[in-house]
From TrEMBL:
Function: Forms part of the ribosomal stalk which helps the ribosome interact with GTP-bound translation factors.
Keyword rRNA-binding included in the entry's annotation: yes
Chain's gene name: rplK
Chain coiled-coil ranges: none
Record-level GO cellular component terms: large ribosomal subunit
Full protein name: Large ribosomal subunit protein uL11
Species for this entry: Candidatus Carsonella ruddii HT isolate Thao2000
Listed GO MF terms: large ribosomal subunit rRNA binding; structural constituent of ribosome
Family named by the database record: Belongs to the universal ribosomal protein uL11 family.
Pfam families for the chain: Ribosomal_L11, Ribosomal_L11_N
Start and end residues of each Large ribosomal subunit protein uL11 C-terminal domain: 75-135
Gene Ontology terms describing biological process: translation
Amino acid sequence: MIIKSKLKLLLKPGKATPTPPIAPILGQYGINLMNFCTKFNEMSKNINLELIHVKVILFNNLNYEIILGNESLNSYIKKTLNIEKFSNKPKIENINYINFKKINEISLYRNIFEKKKIFSVRKMIVGTLISIGINYE
């Protein structure tokens, strides 16, 4: 089968509905939204995470394949640092500090899924921390 396109989504496991943000993205490719939602909800019903990455591979004959990914980096940082809400004004109002040991721990977890160089993963994590208002030392 020939791949027509690859889509990346960030969804709540087991709670997909044929409304935005799913409907506009998948609707333009002609995917049946109800079938997608029931299939995704069935696949992810046992996952107890806030948000997960989902890849949808769409083929030329309008068949598709759903690949469930890992937890989003922001959700993992919230869980690891016990933060309820990130800063509304990053670089102006910073929530708290994180040390390099914790950044390294997060990067080792993340590198299991990313398969990149550890330095690149650390850079990505530091950039995410800055954008959500967490300083590092």
